[in-house]
Amino acid sequence: MTHFVQRFLSNLEAWPxxxxxxxxxxxxxxxxEGKRLRAMIEIARQTLRKEGVEAxxxxxxxxxxxxxxxxxDLAILAExxxxxxxxxxxxxxxxxxxxxxxxxxxxxxxxxTLETSITRELRTPLRTIRMASLFEGAPPKDLERARPLASxxxxxxxxxxxxxxxPKGVLTSVANVEHMLPVLxxxxxxxxxxxxxxDRVFHYxxxxxxxxxxxxxxxxxxxxxIFLSTSLDNLxxxxxxxxxxxxxxxxxxxxxxKSGVEKSISTRALPIRVAYAKTIEAWRRIRSGQPRIxxxxxxxxxxxxxxxxIRAQIGPLLKGLIxxxxxxxxxxxxxxxxxxxxxxxQVYGLTETTAIVSIxxxxxxxxxxxxxxxxxxxxxxxxxxxxxxxxxxxxxxxxRREEATRASFTDDxxxxxxxxxxxxxxGNLAVIGRVKNLLIPTSGHNIAPEPLEERxxxxxxxxxxxxxxxxxxxxxxxxxxxxxxxxxxxxASLDQVNEGLPxxxxxxxxxxxxxxxxxxxxLLTANxxxxxxxxxxxxxxxxxxxxxxx
Length: 550
Hints:
Blueprint: H1 4-14, E1 19-25, E2 28-33, H2 34-50, E3 58-62, H3 67-78, E4 82-86, H4 92-102, E5 106-109, H5 112-121, E6 128-130, E7 154-159, E8 169-173, H6 174-192, E9 201-203, H7 210-221, E10 226-229, H8 235-242, E11 246-249, H9 251-265, H10 270-287, H11 295-314, E12 320-323, H12 330-339, E13 344-348, E14 358-359, E15 372-373, E16 378-381, E17 386-390, H13 402-407, E18 415-423, E19 429-434, H14 449-459, E20 465-469, E21 476-481, H15 487-498, E22 507-512, H16 532-538, H17 540-548
């Protein structure tokens, strides 16, 4: 039976002139067709062998997205080795710790700077090469097939972000991927209405993340090209150049796009500012089921005058945005759908579930929910409404961590996600928060911080990030970041945040952090999630002062 890696290689050979990787450099597109990508893979395979990589080896790979990233990934897989991809922007100390844990045969890095910073932190010397050197030389005359792989072979180890502890290597098997790729193929057929090959899929999230990797592999499986962002600082121009039909997002980017639009409108002439404000008021009344006469006309006019040009900037060909990594606030999702006419399809999953547990159905999108369980994936709610999962997408375990693997499953074999969820009568899933993130103030109530953080982001102008605090404290507080935010504005907005909430869920105080939360300063994980314990320790003095003041 042909496994998925050989299918990728066969697709490149079957469509030699099709562009499979298109790098977006501002206004310029740099395309690589199937025959060239296939040749790059063979050259890299030769180099890997010279460097001692064999079937069953582990190869750590630290680089940003590029065509060479794709060729390197496929070359390692084709040699029967296990790819251990890592985030190039993570701190060198964290990278060194994960690399040592992976115990690889070879380390591949993108640049001399990265090589120097990582090797300085490594306690044991490791054979290291730069990615560019993989592609030196000529391809062999004859193309080789991928090495055979057993169903339990670990094709990749992806280190979890470590939001509440030391990162662990999540094993993903051939069987996991073989199950997921047909599922994604069916889903893309549903969304696009075609079999693939010509969908314009844009990607900006790092391929070292599980969801990103599945997007890449799904495109290769479907013989479809992928457009690659090369600069997050220039994303707006890249989108204009790529003209995508689909791309994967995280909530933070969609929230930032919405905030950017509102910030831009705030600098426009008074009539535009007033029109936008009245449109949002009318739209919210319509959504709440209490419209006034004329509200529909106000929204319709604004969609043509204000929102149509905005949609053209984001992507005139867009058929849908796919959003994962964390729950997307309901209002943000509806803003894109109702006002920009951009469908948003939510997806939910973890690295341990081969990236996906549930996906929105095209005809059954419910804002604030993350869709229905994928084929053959069973879900149910356990204690404290924790989502439990069983199915062929569940990982075989953590690399060299038997105790942690056992702890992640119930006695009867269900994987414990750690996510607190609800299920509606149609099986549509909603993620409330993390079970282990629950705040228990001295009142004894169990409080999920995530919904409150969404309210802060929605109701406090200028807030970019929010962290609700209060475990073991007499009341809740919030830490926020934002360049255009003042303490007085924050305090004045808390009444709106707290409106309609019971006393124990109200936020009494807040403070503005002087630095933004980023992966570089260790306050966010590599995929932009809050490292709550680290944040509390980092701002310990400010938090103590907040509770000490009257």
